[in-house]
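Chapter summary example.
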Amino acid sequence: MTIHDTEFSAPTGASLASEIFGLLQFPRLAVQSPKLIRLPRGDETVVVFPGYSTNDLAMLPLRSALKALGHQPFGWGFGTNRAEVEKMLDPVIEMVERRVEQTGRPATTIGWSNGGIFAREVARDRPDLVTQIITIGTPVFGGPKYTRGAALYPQDEVDRIAKVVDDRNAIPIEQPITSIYSEADNIVDWRACIDTFSPNVENIEVSSTHAGMIIDPDVWTIIAKRLAD
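The structure predicted for these 229 residues follows.
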């Protein structure tokens, strides 16, 4: 038995073109910049994970914004995220451990899309390293099953990964989780981003495309407030 009993589906090819509207977040950032610089400040250790097929450069605007608010943000430092969670989880945990030792305090892990899976799994395996988790457009079950990435795998591998994810989800993450999702997401089925099983989670909806979420001022505002709590 899985933790969910409804079969979702990956977004269709016809909806992919609308991801271009994510670029509209850049003008919104400019318009809302006076508001953004007044967001709550803090001094938290933050590790930010990029999405599938992207690297730390994709998350640079967010890390820069967090640094401007007084936090100590770090990238993941492993180049392009190839969604190799099983292979990369141990090295990623070691990286987070080094950052925690460097700053002297546990980290908030933030991940976009597949990067959010790393953000969650580090906390699951090493709760001593993580104070809270924030995911952005991240499927919390199914692995690639309910994403466009499913087409890149043989069906038996999709099913195997989904089973691994279900098995890991049976071990609860106790730290606070904020799961940010959007019904306008054209990469991940938004319903797969809603965490209904973790004991300490808040699911928050925004109105952005999948790509646009990482430069969405509403998302940045949510993150800043979470880090200041």
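To summarize the output: The two ends are 36 Å apart (CA to CA).
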